[in-house]
Predict the structure.
Amino acid sequence: MDFAGKSVVITGGATGIGFALAKRLGAAGAKVVLCEPRADKLAEAVAGLDALGVEARSFAGDVTDAASVEALADFAWAAHGRIDAIVANAGVGGPRTKVIDSDAEAARALFEVNFWGVWNCIRSFGRRFQAEGLPSAIYATASENALFNAVRTNGGAYVASKHAVLGLMDMLRNEAPDHVEVGVIIPGWVKSDLTRHAEPAMDADAFADRIVPQMESGEFYLVSHPYNVVRMEERWDEAYAAFAKYAPRAPGDEAMDVQTAIESGRPVKRRD
């Protein structure tokens, strides 16, 4: 998407990755609407963007509340006539405990932001984009933890939530109308409110400088940290080895492949 003259909503947009994306998108000519619950942080962010010559507005809202997200959409459309893109970026780090020892309510609270918050944005904005029939885009921030477990212990709820976001966005890109672009943002270690240590994490502005050109090119995977491929290869090498040993390819095995069956028109029975 060419962001010149476009209007973009960014949740979690007042700090960290969201604010860096707001600055970079603003530099590309976009008008931005920032959303997060803290009015003071929003005011600081809008003032900072105004100083850079970026047209910005703010809405204090909660992505875990579907009605609040719908109110955000109403506000954004009223402010700009229409919105061209949503960046569902809001996220939290959550409990740092082992899976077995995790508090279920804390894990659910994390999913309410990291997963259901994205879902709410997709529903509210996606339905409007679909109805308008105009070029638009839906982006969501996942994590390198959507591709492999960068956090190897004490982060099960967070890692699972980011895996879920990737799966959701991968499904969405197959279902969205042709006029709606879909992209999933894959940060590695970026300096933000979520990171525990500032160094050697990537500067948020440098991260945005890598991501926005990929958004402009219409890519699905919006990536930043080259070493991620090493960790991805480790995961998939192990998986491929398991298949090679216990479920090797054989002539005719495509008959049991769900995607092949669907694309060929053969009925696939659901098992409830």
